[in-house]
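Complex record, two chains
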Amino acid sequence: MDFLNALVVLSNFVLIPAVAYGSQLALGALGVTLIYGILRFSNFAHGDTMAFGTMVVVLVTYLFQSWGLSLGPLPTALLALPFGILGCMALVLVTDRTVYRFYRQQKAKPVILVIVSMGVMFIMNGLVRFIIGPNDQRFADGERFIISVREFKQMTGLSEGLAIRTTQGITVVTAIIVVALLFWFLNKTRTGKSMRAYSDNEDLALLSGINPERVVLYTWLIVAALATVAGTLYGLDKTFKPFTYFQLLLPIFAAAIVGGLGNPLGAIAGGFVIAFSEVTITYAWKKVLKYLLPENLEPSSLVQLLSTDYKFAVSFAILVVVLLFKPTGLFKGKSV
Amino acid sequence: MSNNPYQDDRGNKDASITKTGGGTMQVSTGTDHAMSTDEAFLIGDSMTGGYGKSGPDILHDCTIAVNKGEIAVIVGPNGAGKSTAMKATFGMLHLRQGSVRLDGTDITGLTPQARVAAGMGFVPQTSNIFTSMTVEENLEMGAFIRKDDYRQTIEQIYDLFPILRDKRRQPAGELSGGQRQQVAVGRALMTQPKVLLLDEPTAGVSPIVMDELFDRIIEVARTGISILMVEQNARQALEIADKGYVLVQGRNAHTGTGKDLLADPEVRQSFLGG
């Protein structure tokens, strides 16, 4: 019984939140890794691209709410998601036409594009704060829990409860669907294969008649969709605040690099590695240990390795360790 | 102008003894050596040029031609501009002089991609496959510009290179050197080109694999595809060549059928090691 209780506590506070957070990071890291693989630079503006897409979703959600439109138990944001994706696609395409395309035509070295993306990041960052303001926006509505603590206790008779929030359920389900669609697209369709070919060998792709501008266009469209979905899921799970999205850049990059930049599978694995490390290291283990250890060994402190304020230090530390010891990442990526 | 002493009148202007205004047209024909470009399907005609708009000239009045269904081989010492000459026919070199014609049409101004669409296939010397993609996906990418059904062509390539059929689901990067070259040639054949350009197809493969590759190349040529090939292994390459070009410092040094060149004492002496 003690063991089961420990397991329930662990699931409630570590496993389930980490799976949800990991899915969000994985979707973000997929976008970063796609840009890296195909446009060959690390896109620092990715966090703010997510913020822009999510902002459109939030605004459209507010509009729908004012019209009284809703999805019942599901959050209205899901209904607004397609509009957010379209808005984000428009943004990245305008950015690509006005900024990145110039540097592609100059055949600029990728490092220049990295710095360019930083400039884009600041502009997008300002744009989002200008439109929606720097404050927290809560836009999640509908049913709050799939299983609440009280229901769970009644169902099982355990003294510890387990809650699964609707947003966590939606996050995982959406992430699975999106990832499945993405892999199907990359591995089975002609356009997806041409994107992989371009990423693999640009010259040969050109000789095979693959149009680079077209590949770049599709990449941006997919990245915009991924970024908006990731941002919206994160916003539903927590809240939407532009600055948080800028900060998300670190765990997302850590995830992409841990998994191996340019490798979509790696991005997903990396997302979960980062999420689980962050959550387990900043979690106070006292409650779990109380159930597992004999009474005389019961810890008196919280057994929290790091305060949650330092959670970014975890992804940063992992990033440094990976770059030092396995620069190509867990799966074979391209960065060295 | 001329150094013919009989044409020097030592400044005579006396019209009372000579009448001015005779015929001045000079007749001079030929290059004094056979260029054999009469039936050329693909010809890089007297090409002069180098990399970039301002780079030094690498090719000097160099002519390379290949007839329909024949194998032409470019050989020569290191740094003779063999690969450069072939790349020039494929639009990867800035030509200051000369032209490239495919089946009588001038293609000098076309980009490499456009030349692929016009019926040329090119197999670069290095990174000539998509290493992270399977053999079959490599072939599919080769057929990217084709809008019709290309399954038939894939089957033909599997018939030509049976080993690829067994490895169709394997990433091409995991194959051996010889198999990679087969994938590379197969990919270029997917567009059903009329001319195939091969840049040192046997570089870095064992002699046995090399012989097999040459056999396959002959088979490809028998299907009516012209082949222009740069080779380091001059002797073996000239043995299968209908026409050989020996380049030295970006110039045509010797031209002839493969057999002629192999028999030519000068060519043997300088390039084939006796």
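Note: The radius of gyration of chain B is 23 Å.
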